[in-house]
Input
Amino acid sequence: QGGASTGYKKFVSENGSQDDTYSESGVALFRVQGSGPDNMQAIQVDAVAPSLNSSYCYILHDGDTVFTWIGNLSSSMDQELAERQLDVIKPNLQSRMLKEGSEYDQFWKILGIKSEYSSQKIARDPESDAHLFCCTFLKG
Output
């Protein structure tokens, strides 16, 4: 259960560690990947511009503000998966879709500053994508 478990909370408290647990009301950036609607996941990455990669789609949220970022090298399947994951992460909010290169200033402000990120094509291994499972988020 990670950040939602009592053991994790105790570990963080005892070690003076920073609790980076996902928060629905905070800032979060998710890279979306998978091979189809029954085989997808959203991976939380650092909410900074260098975490972006043109080969993927991302979901960025800051409280009630949600953006879906579409990398120039992503596929139509990647875009569909991002929309499906959005229904899991923020089902009651409308996302603003941004194609790479046409971002709003607000998008970059949430990520701190506009800076460089990878625009290199990532070769994906269909075999590794075959083992992905849809993620769920604990509420509470």
Q: What stands out?
A: The domain at 2-8+24-129 is CATH 3.40.20.10 (Severin). Helices lie at 6-15, 76-89, 105-110, 126-129. The first strand starts at residue 27 and ends at 36. Residues 1-5, 126-140 have pLDDT under 50 and may be disordered.
